[in-house]
Amino acid sequence: MQIATDRRVVSDIDPFSESFRADPYSHYAQLRALGPLVWLEKYGIWVVQHHAQVKTVLTDWKRFSNAGGGGLTNYFKEKNWRKPSIILEVDPPEHERTRRVLMRLFTPGALQKMREEFTQVAQSMVASAIAQGQVDGVSDLVQPFPMKVFPDAVGMPPLDRDIMLVYGGMVFGAFGPRTPWYDQLLSRADEVSAWIDAHCERSALTDDGLGAAIYAAADGGEITHEEAKLLVRSFLSAGVDTTIDSIGLCLRALAEHPEQWAALREDPSLARAAFEEATRYDSSSQSLFRTTTEDFEFEGRCWASTKRCWC
Ligand code: OVV
């Protein structure tokens, strides 16, 4: 730690390094101990980790904009390999317009239908795992489940969907800096983008899924058909990897805490609370970025516009 001449608290910690990723929590503690606002010199970004500051950064979109992107790449200065998400990487009032369309999909009836379909798939996957005798939690259950239920709910036909994992890696890789593994995925960007684009078209979807309902909102004039396609894409970008990670991290937490696993086996009605707690205990999404839109003072230290914030 050092104090820069303008009294910034500076750290050389790299949140994208392998050592950080292997053990994020001790690094978070180190960063938190430096105070409410730290300058990460490797990337030239501010980081906030304390609740009050994180809450301000994540809610005050007028000063901390989403439109610069949710990751390290600053869209005000640089283009990403894919078009920005019109639900994630956008501020009000545009965000409210697209959010309204998505929120309307989740009526109690639609959720009930999804619950039934998801439960049926889960039961049959668990039944075949039990029949198999020995399972690999991640490859036999954790990955196949969201890969089936989400695209099914959107209305995608049951084609080979493995390319979606490559796409997911590219989407979430884009939140960080260029790394060899991300560059390797990016070498397939054209092919993968074309696949995703084609499979989000109205003509590629069933007429009774979430995708069809989004296109119906476009017919009603609330959004354009091009925007409908991007909202369908959001389901495939945001839903699959996050769910795989969340269930996988939950399984790992249970494996590492056998007494919690025993309590859950004893009382399976704890499953919902256990899963929700697991998503807090070890979250699939641990960092988000915002971009400042104007010069202002924050925590007595933060001024310049379009500097990234990580929280
Ligand atoms: C929450 C999230 C993560 C990644 C991508 C998207 C959303 C999207 O809307 O494309």
Class based on secondary structure composition and strand pairing: alpha/beta
If classified by CATH, what would the architecture of the largest domain be? Orthogonal Bundle
SSE pattern: EEHHEEHEHHHHHHHHHHHHEE
Unreliable segments (pLDDT under 50, ≥5 consecutive)? Answer: none
Query: Proportion of β residues?
Result: 5-15%
Mean pLDDT: 93
Strand order of the largest sheet: 1-2-3-4-7-6-5
The number of E-state strands comes to 7
Terminal-residue CA separation: 19 Å
Shape: globular
The molecules bound to the chains, other than polymers, are: 3-methylbenzoic acid
Quote the CATH topology of the largest domain: Cytochrome p450
Which CATH first-tier class of the largest domain would you pick? Mainly Alpha
Q: How many domains is the backbone divided into? A: 2
**Number of helical segments?**
15
CATH superfamily of the largest domain: Cytochrome P450
Helix % is 40-55%
Tell me the Rg in angstroms: 21 Å
Q: Summarize the main sheet.
A: 7 strands, mixed
Task: Describe the protein's architecture and organization.
- By secondary structure, the chain is α/β, with parallel strands linked by helices.
- The protein folds into 2 domains: 1-70 and 288-311, Uridine Diphospho-n-acetylenolpyruvylglucosamine Reductase, domain 2, CATH 3.30.43; 93-284, Cytochrome P450 (Cytochrome p450).
- It contains 15 helices and 7 strands.
- The protein has helices spanning 18-22, 24-33, 51-59, 94-103, 108-132, 137-142, 144-154, 163-173, 180-186, 189-199, 210-219, 225-238, 240-256, 258-266, 271-281, and strands at 2-3, 9-11, 38-40, 45-47, 64-65, 289-292, 308-310.
- It has a 7-stranded mixed beta sheet, with helices on one face.
- A hairpin with a 5-residue loop joins strand 1 (2-3) and strand 2 (9-11).
- Helix 5 packs antiparallel against helix 7 (144-154), helix 8 (163-173) crosses helix 10 (189-199) and helix 13 crosses helix 15 (271-281).
- The longest helix has 25 residues, at 108-132.
- The chain is globular.
- The two termini are 19 Å apart.
- The mean pLDDT is 93.
- 3-methylbenzoic acid (OVV) is lined by residues 85, 87-88, 171, 234, 237-238.
- 3-methylbenzoic acid binds at residues 85, 87-88, 171, 234, 237-238.
